[in-house]
Amino acid sequence: MNEPERAPAWHIAQWFNTPAPISLEAQRGKVVVACAFQMLCPGCVSHAIPQLKALHELFAPQGVCVVGLHTVFEHHEAVTASVLEAFLHEYGIRCPVGIDAPARDGRPIPQTMAAYRMQGTPTFLLIDRQGRLRRQVFGLVPELRFGAEVMQLLMEPASATRKGPMS
Question: Which InterPro entries match (predicted)?
């Protein structure tokens, strides 16, 4: 079995709901759950956003870093930072949310989305205490299964080197 790879750094243009920017390197020692979403994506709004909110409510008090990554690969002109800020307020999203930095080469795919080779939104990322990407899922993950996977990573010691069943 292959060892999980280090999760690529996030490239964030602006953060909401946090007093300071969040980097993956600074989260070393914590389990990190991220949900890449678009506010104009029906599946994100109806399923992923509620799941992101539930994950934050349940796991942030246990020290899990739960974040949203707003990654826009279409309708760029309609989705501004001020529109996203209103969306976060209206939907009661209290976890930190970063706006994925636009592509540098003029293509529509933002930098973090490209770094993770995401297929679209929603995409969930589960990163262990050592900063390794343990799971990446395009689409929805059954809540019970995802909660169990987060708990499994929480139970692993920070120095764990074995690969779990999620991989």
Answer: Redoxin (IPR013740), Thioredoxin-like_sf (IPR036249), Thioredoxin_domain (IPR013766), Thioredoxin_ResA/DsbE_sf (IPR050553)
| Closest of 114, 149, 153, 105 to residue 132, by C-alpha | 153
86-142 residue pLDDT tens: 999 999 999 999 999 998 877 778 999 999 999 999 999 999 999 999 999 999 888
* Beta sheet of 133-138, edge-to-edge order: 12-16, 97-100, 65-70, 32-37, 123-127, 133-138
Place of tokens 């246990």: 62
Residue 92, sorted as left (phi over 0), alpha (psi -120 to 50) or beta, turns out to be left
How far is CA 66 from each of CA 2, 78, 97, 107, 137, rounded to the nearest angstrom? Answer: 26, 26, 9, 28, 16
Q: How many residues does the chain have?
A: 167
Q: Is 71 helix (H, G, I), strand (E, B) or coil?
A: coil
How many CB atoms neighbour CB 161 within 10 A?
A: 10
